[in-house]
Amino acid sequence: MLANVLSCTTVGMEPHLIEVEVDVSNGLPCFEIVGLPDLTVKESKERVRTAIKNSGFEFPPRRIVVNLAPADIKKEGPGFDFAIATGILAATGQLNTDALQRYVLVGELSLDGRLRAIPGILPMAIFLWEHVKKAFIIPFDNSGEAALTPLTAFALHKLAEIKEFLKNPAVYTPVVHAVPEKSLGQIPALGSTDLSDVKGQRMAKRALEIAASGGHNILLVGSPGSGKSLLAKCLPSILPPMTVEEALEVSKIYSVAGLLSKEKPLVTSRPFRSPHHSSSGASLMGGGQAPKPGEVTLATNGVLFMDELPEYRRDVLEALRQPLEEYTVTITRVSAAVAFPARFQLVGAANPCYCGYYGDRLKECTCTPYQVNKYRSKISGPLLDRIDLQIDVPRVTFEELESRRQEESSETVRQRVVAARARQLARFNGTAVTCNAQMGHKEVKKYCLIRGEARELLSNAFGALGLSARAHDRILKIARTIADMAGTGDIKASHVAEAIQYRSFDRTLL
Q1: Which position among 10, 181, 207, 232 has the lowest Cβ density within 10 Å, counted as fewest Cβ atoms?
Q2: SS3 256
Q3: What is the pLDDT of residues 464-492, one digit of tens each?
Q4: Strand partners, 24
């Protein structure tokens, strides 16, 4: 007898509807799964066999063939267990097959028949709500993710419940929706460090506020102990709160990666990812035989902090070029090409040389000129060109450390950042651009017009610093952000002058 059950899976970030066809016929007992399954799916045979027996059902000692269609999509993970087991029960007449067609089933089975949570439920639920319009049957531990969508979903604890559910679904209560409202925008994205904890460093703090206001990348260069890492950890505390759309996008990514909390399935604060400098290209960009999100994707709508930037492998650093420019990263494999979002703010921290004291006013550098140049060259010109703000972080003086002066708090700075972002959202209303850093050349020409003294100032700097066309546009973006922070519509010469000084290190220090 033949039975069809609908299931769902994700390839990268894209959900796909999968039809599980189960044929139980006479012949020598065997259990085969076809349709491009990976090893995890093939191993489901023993989980399904044992779970069916331990749930009080009969496992047929006959020839069983399971086809996962369409066959050109790679099937991976244990999420098909529930659908395969239900298909076998339906094919052997142990379940109501007519009612089964109204539902999509996913879930991993334990040997005693319990349903275990699987990753990727949130993007699946959104896909089913928008395109399939069928109810979702999921493990109970995944109910929080399904509740974030308007889709009708039922959460079951074990395989044995499916028989009673199909007989009388009215007895079961759907997952209670907790669809986020606009009030989410009032939740502050608090970081672990407040700006008031940072003594001195006025210029670096100003640059950090500009970076937060316009969504710009930033590089902090200074001797050891000057406060580079502390400043970087303050950035999330001054970023504007995430919108509902941003929160759902981040939650979808974390759902696919299996990092969502069961108790709190909606990510409401901006991510802050800080990979170690020994990280591989695959861990940073994403990858694997079945591509999974990397650090650049997990940092979407948040901050990617790369401490000791020159210590990363050269190929890892150069791989950042595409996501910094296009806000996506594409992982290509023989079976498929998978695109992951990568809209993040890069914050890099670097010492000025091997010993760390080149240019320090109190401690002498022990590096030779050759060593200094070799260390600087670890960050290539093309990568440095994509970093908007390059800031010198000097050593903090004793007087600054012992000062009782109350430093400005993150809450105060964040209010100014939110006001600047509001001006940008109004300017880019109706487009995919949400902040100044995301402007393309077309938007720069339209919104970053400069005249007179400001134009002459940029012209002189362009030749003196040997800036590229990309650096030219990025200076204009920074100047536009500074003007937004000042509440002015026109970009003035003072705004351009300040923007230029934040680009000086791309030719003088690193």
Answers
A1: 181
A2: helix
A3: 887 888 888 999 999 999 999 999 889 99
A4: 64
424 within 8 A of 436, measured Cβ to Cβ: yes
Indicate the number of domains in the chain.
Answer: 2
**Which residue is associated with the tokens 């150069």?**
318
Domain presence at residue 176: no
**Whether 485 contacts 206, CB under 8 Å:** no
Q: Is the pLDDT of residue 183 over 50?
A: no
Please give the Cα distance from 500 to 476 (Å, whole number).
Answer: 9
Nearest 10 degrees: Cα torsion 266, 268, 269, 270: 70
What's the CA gap between 154 and 134, in Å, rounded?
11
If we measure between CA atoms, which residue out of 51, 162, 42 comes closest to residue 111? 51
Judgement on whether residues 257 and 147 belong to the same structural domain of the protein: no
Q: Note the pLDDT of residue 179.
A: 67
Task: Classify residue 412: in a domain, yes or no.
Answer: yes
Q: What is the DSSP string of 102-162?
A: TEEE--EE-TTSBEEP-TTHHHHHHHIIIII--EEEEEGGGHHHHTTSSS-EEEESBTTHH
Whether the CB-CB separation of 409 and 222 falls below 8 Å is answered with no
CB 321 within 8 A of CB 384: no
Task: Say how far apart CA 29 and CA 45 lie, in whole Å.
Answer: 13
Q: Is the torsion defined by CA of 418, 421, 425, 426 positive or negative?
A: positive
- Are 73 and 10 members of one domain? yes
91 and 153 part of one domain: yes
- CB-hemisphere CA count at 13 Å for 243? 7
- Mean pLDDT of all residues belonging to the chain: 90
463 domain-assigned: yes
Q: What is the pLDDT of residue 509?
A: 44
Find tokens 């925008």 and name the residue.
185
Q: Answer with the residue of higher pLDDT: 221 or 182.
A: 221
> 136 and 212 share a domain?
no
